[in-house]
Each structure stands twice: as structure tokens, then as C-alpha cells.
Q: What sequence folds into this?
């Protein structure tokens, strides 16, 4: 771990985009101890057995048929950064494209020529006015790129030090049929088990059940990735369109319906996982749930600030609201009835129904 090298890497950010993704990933790894993935044979068998048992148990309890992804990896923190930076990049692609187009248009107008600032042709002749605006815009973009790269490096590093496991549905992937991924960040699982004073094998199994539950959701709802992608794309287009950055969307502004639908869907995803794993886990879990809930809301001031900046407080509220919704539905109709949300997009609860599960039961009647 080398903080100074991380800072130097960020300061060297370059390229045409608003983020230098290669340097963001490199800086995040510079500032993050990778941890060890030197697994014993027993640990390897433990991870495999946990995933296999979780799949069987969840399918039995929920009445859902699904497959575990072919890609199941036990990672260190640097592996997680490498696996996740492309997800960040894909989400940011429309914003980067809009920013590049918007900046190019402004510079071309100021300079009276081509938007390619690497070419001398962009600079005006004496009749076009001073060259200062073009030079100033270029400097501002460079400074902004460094700041954005630093922000992404911070986010990747913080998450890499805290993520325990992840089901990756590969949203917005270039290859829509690419196999989903299931990742376990081994050094974090070991460290958190020790910090929470719980047995490592038992904690590892708990995390496996949680992540395999997400695989069950997406396996039961093959329409879900496209649904989420469309809401992300509409929301992002609305954001950049409000700034005049995307042709055909200028002035549209935020798309509140897309964001509301996305938030409701993710609340359902997180809440269902919480309730199903509680009912399917083959052991005592009350202490694990309590300690993990405390961890989600705890930590020092730097950790709490990072959680706020990264929206992790919103994720915690998603867990809580979604879990309350599905507990009510499962208590009223059974856990298999709760799985009706994955039959089709129309069965997803609205934001209002999440806080009023009886309204959802009346509408869907699972």
C-alpha cells in the first residue's frame, strides 16, 4: 500500500474522457492492501460447499429454479477492483460521452474551428478574438479529469476494503449474454469475521447464502437485467440531457419515474434477499444479523463520511424497507408467494406499495 504513489497516479490522469479509468484502478490498488487469497484445501472446499448448499437450500425454500454462475471467484481486494472497474465505466459511459460532446461544442464555438484541441486548427485567427477561452477550457478539463479520477479511485478503494461478496449481473455489458459472476473477497470476510467475533467458516457460509440469493432472484427473473438497465439508461440520459449534453434529450432534465422505478426494484432485490436467506440459512443467524446491521451503520467519522458520499446509507434503507415488505408478504402468504415479484416486471412493488404491502397483495394476489 503506497498512498503517495496513489496520489501521483491520480495526478497523471490523462485521456479524452472525464475519468482516466486505468489510473483510477491503479490508484485504488496503490492505496489498498490486497490481502491474501492463499487458501487451504479445506477453505477451497468450504467455499464450494457453501455455494452448492446455498443453491440447493434456497431453491427448496423459495420454490425457484436457478443456476449458480459458472464464474465463482475467491478474490483479494485488487482482484475485486479489476473486476468492478468495468461496471463503473459502463455506467459512466453515457455521462462521459455527453461531457465530451458538450465540451467539444463549446470549445469549437469559442475557438472558431474544429473541436479537436490537439490540432492547431482549433485556434482562431486574429479576427476571431483571443485564444484564452480555449486554453482555459482545456486546463479546466484536465483539472476536472484529475478530480474525477481521484473520486473514482477513492470509491473503488473504499469498496474493495469493505465488500464481502458480490453477485454481478453484468448490467450494461457489451455482451448481454455473458455469464454473470459471483465473487467473494476473502481477506475482507476473514477480517470482518474476526472483528465481529464470529466463527469464520460460519460467517463465510452466511455471506455465500446472501450472494447466492441474488443469483436466485436474477435466475427467476430473466427480464430483470434489461429492466434495471433501461432505468439506469433513462436516468442517466435525463441527467446529461438536462445539461444539454445528449442530442435529442437537451432540456429533459432528470427522469424521476426512471429513478423511482430503479430504487423500488433495487429495494425489492435487497429486501427479498434478506428475508429469503434468513428463512433458508441452515443454522442460527440472529447474532450475525445483529452484528452486520451494527456494522452497516457504524464505524469512525471517515467511514461514515465515505458511506454518505457513496450512498451506502440509501442501500441500508433499501435493505430495511425491502425486508419489512417481504416479511409481511411471507408471513401473510408464504415465502413462495413473495417470489411472485420475479414472475414479471408488473409484479414489482411500487415505492408506495413497499411501505404498504397489503396494497401489493391486493393488486398482485400471489
A:
Amino acid at each position: 500500500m503506497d498512498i503517495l504513489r496513489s496520489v501521483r497516479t491520480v495526478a497523471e490522469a490523462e485521456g479524452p474522457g472525464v475519468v482516466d479509468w486505468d489510473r483510477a484502478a491503479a490508484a485504488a490498488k496503490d492505496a489498498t492492501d490486497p490481502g491474501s487469497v492463499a487458501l487451504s484445501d479445506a477453505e477451497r472446499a468450504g467455499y464450494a460447499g457453501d455455494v452448492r448448499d446455498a443453491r440447493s437450500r434456497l431453491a427448496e425454500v423459495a420454490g425457484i429454479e436457478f443456476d449458480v454462475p459458472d464464474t465463482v471467484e475467491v478474490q483479494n481486494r485488487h482482484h475485486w477492483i479489476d473486476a468492478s472497474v468495468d461496471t463503473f465505466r459502463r455506467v459512466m459511459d453515457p455521462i462521459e460521452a455527453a461531457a465530451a460532446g458538450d465540451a467539444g461544442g463549446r470549445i469549437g464555438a469559442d475557438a472558431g474551428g474544429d473541436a479537436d484541441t490537439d490540432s492547431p486548427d482549433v485556434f482562431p485567427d486574429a479576427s476571431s478574438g483571443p485564444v484564452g477561452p480555449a486554453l482555459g477550457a482545456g486546463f479546466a478539463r484536465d483539472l476536472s479529469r484529475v478530480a474525477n479520477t481521484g473520486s473514482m479511485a477513492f470509491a473503488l478503494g473504499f469498496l474493495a476494503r469493505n465488500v464481502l461478496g458480490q453477485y454481478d449481473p453484468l448490467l450494461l455489458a457489451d455482451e448481454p449474454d455473458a455469464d454473470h459472476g459471483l465473487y467473494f473477497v476473502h481477506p475482507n470476510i476473514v477480517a470482518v469475521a474476526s472483528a465481529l467475533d464470529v466463527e469464520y467458516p460460519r460467517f463465510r457460509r452466511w455471506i455465500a447464502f446472501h450472494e447466492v440469493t441474488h443469483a436466485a432472484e436474477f435466475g427467476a427473473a430473466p427480464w430483470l437485467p434489461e429492466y434495471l438497465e433501461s432505468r439506469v439508461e433513462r436516468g442517466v440520459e435525463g441527467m446529461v440531457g438536462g445539461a444539454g449534453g445528449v442530442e435529442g434529450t437537451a432540456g429533459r432534465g432528470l427522469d424521476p419515474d426512471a429513478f423511482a422505478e430503479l430504487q423500488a426494484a433495487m429495494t425489492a432485490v435487497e429486501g427479498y434477499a434478506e428475508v429469503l436467506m434468513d428463512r433458508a440459512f441452515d443454522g442460527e443467524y440472529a447474532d450475525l444479523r445483529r452484528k452486520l446491521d451494527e456494522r452497516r451503520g457504524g464505524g469512525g467519522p471517515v467511514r461514515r463520511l465515505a458511506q454518505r458520499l457513496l450512498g451506502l446509507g440509501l442501500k441500508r434503507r433499501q435493505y430495511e424497507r425491502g425486508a419489512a415488505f417481504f416479511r409481511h408478504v411471507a408471513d401473510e402468504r408464504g415465502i413462495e408467494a413473495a417470489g411472485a415479484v420475479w414472475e414479471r416486471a408488473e409484479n414489482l412493488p411500487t415505492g408506495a406499495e413497499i411501505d404498504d404491502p397489503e396494497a401489493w397483495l391486493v393488486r398482485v394476489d400471489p
User: Anything to note?
Assistant: Confidence is low (pLDDT under 50) at residues 103-135, 243-252. The longest strand covers residues 71-75. The two ends are 52 Å apart (CA to CA). Strands lie at 71-75, 165-168, 181-185.
